[in-house]
Amino acid sequence: MPHPLPTVTVGLVSASDRASSGVYADEGIPALKQWLQAAVKNPLNFAEALVADEQSAIEAVLRRMADSDGCDLIFTSGGTGPAPRDVTPEATLAVTDKEMPGFGEQMRQISLYYVPTAILSRQTAGIRGKCLIVNLPGRPKAIAETLGGVRGESGEIKVHGLFAAIPYCVELIGGAFIETDEAVCKAFRPKQK
């Protein structure tokens, strides 16, 4: 009898002055939840936070989610551009033990298929303890593209999305074993010798 999949605790942080003050509804967290619920087979437990573009507030919520809430994985949404108030990457790097620059490089590669302004993105990722923290764009369409990758007209993968590498990364740092629905995103793990 196969073992049941462990529950994965995922932190979802949306950094936006306007959404956090009620000017408009946040779209980042709902888009992330929808994509993850379709892609991940494990039971999911979400910790959510909508914060202003304040580095200290973002740092505090990332620390809480990683250290107290026991998140295996945290996604941030928004605050990664060149504008003065965009400080999510700074907050992420301030609380992580190891930077994972390949995530930002891959996000920009994916986004360049869609918009030339992808080079303005400063998204990054890092590890805090046993938690992977990844900065994502704020728009729902861009979130899905970044996580799922670029596909051709017949559905073949042209550029791998970020999530293909995330389950293995989380496993390597001591987090939960994450299984994906391959129709949405096939997780890559090296073949066992």
From TrEMBL:
Biological process annotations from GO: Mo-molybdopterin cofactor biosynthetic process
Keyword line: ATP-binding, Molybdenum cofactor biosynthesis, Nucleotide-binding, Nucleotidyltransferase, Transferase
Enzyme Commission (EC) number: 2.7.7.75
Pathways involved: Cofactor biosynthesis; molybdopterin biosynthesis
Recorded GO MF terms: ATP binding; molybdopterin adenylyltransferase activity
Reaction(s) the record says it catalyses: molybdopterin + ATP + H(+) = adenylyl-molybdopterin + diphosphate
Pfam families according to UniProt: MoCF_biosynth
Start and end residues of each MoaB/Mog domain: 11-157
EC main group: transferase
InterPro entries: MoaB/Mog-like_dom_sf, MoaB/Mog_dom, MPT_Adenylyltrnsfr/MoaC-Rel
SUPFAM superfamilies: Molybdenum cofactor biosynthesis proteins
Family of this protein: Belongs to the MoaB/Mog family.
Primary role: Catalyzes the adenylation of molybdopterin as part of the biosynthesis of the molybdenum-cofactor.
UniProt name for this protein: Molybdopterin adenylyltransferase
Organism: Neisseria dentiae
Lineage, top ranks: Bacteria, Pseudomonadati, Pseudomonadota, Betaproteobacteria, Neisseriales
